Known about the structure:
Blueprint: H1 3-25, H2 29-32, H3 37-41, H4 45-53, H5 55-63, H6 65-68, H7 73-77, E1 85-88, E2 91-94, H8 99-103, H9 107-114, H10 120-127, H11 139-148, H12 159-164, H13 166-171, H14 173-177, H15 192-195, H16 202-206, H17 208-211, H18 222-228, H19 230-238, H20 261-265, H21 297-308, H22 314-347, H23 359-381, H24 384-416
Antiparallel strand pairs: 1-2
Amino acid sequence: MSFRSVFIALVIGFSLILAGFLINRQRPSSETDQPNEAFVRATGKCAECHSRQHYSVVHEYELSVHAKKGINCLDCHQQVAGQEKLEHHGFVLTKSLTSANCKSCHALQYEQYAHSRHAAPSWAAVYGEKGSKEHPLTAEQVALAEKFHPGSCKRPANPLVTVEGHPAVQSGCVSCHAIGRPNADGSIGNCTSCHARHIASVELARLPTTCAQCHMGPDHSQIEIYTESKHGVLFNAQRKMLNLAVSPQKLTTRDMFVPTCATCHMSGLNGLNVTHDPSERLSYNLFAEITKPRENFARAQESMKNVCLQCHTQPLVERVYKEAEAVVVSTNDKVQSAKNIVDGLRKDGILKGRPFENPIDFAYFDLWHYYGRTSKHGAFMGGADFVQWHGNYPMLKHIVEIRSAADEMRRNDGKKK
């Protein structure tokens, strides 16, 4: 072989190598870098694409306890019984993640959640016993809910669903009540409502602002009441000193010396039982038109008082309950007096039509659904302003207005006769 041929071959070979090097420099680092430990934890193959397309997904996963424990993407995204499959770059995944996927590892937590009002009762509060057309409730789901919360599912759809229309309900009510939406695989709800996708964070679930995504506003103003209360004031002042990320089984008052919603309603503080049923420690149905004790009244109240006693003395706890229960009785009396007026109009044929067709319907609804609830929640949660100026005062005002409107309606009805 001549020198000329060898020289040309070397030049061509060097040119190809140089071209390859220059092309490779233009590739993203996620393709060219050797995978580090965190990258491998993010399941390698999944992270290779998703770190370019949806970096936040991979980053959130890398921060999670799941990543630290070696749980990879496929462990959660694999198809379980009853789920529609998705062929995805050589992997068979579930098309939609539900609580059934979490249940495969967190069976106890799912069972507790399924017993709660966050489950089927939440969906039935919007669509009634049958659920929606796209997401119907099964007979088994209704029966389980009725066992723990009688009357919570065997009820008609909320009349506002028809009055306000689908767009308002879908973007409003369903955004929160989907925590109890039934899934095609037979499960209920989605754990990411509280824990968020990929980060799966217990710290996030303990933040008051997480609960406040739904528990806010005039009809369930828990976050506003909490923020005003001494608990909320202390939390905002000392947030950085709390250990919100500690394991539920190891949580003590050294970690959470100021409570959040989860501390009182769910956490296993100082060795107490952990629960994913936020209603387990509630002794009254404060959300109801006329509040009555819950089925498990004594056990629930004892459980909640045991949480209170981790920070407070027995006399203080008993005093708070005694005063709050007095507010419940008083609120019930006020609501009942207004209810008697409105029911009397309907009984006598003076108030006609469907719900929310007459001004007095709205006045009564606001009285119990907004101000009655707020008064009761304020009493139990330490929100004095909500007991008085957002509760009892507007209730008094609405009773006067309802009574005046009813008298006017009766006079007008008498003139017709």
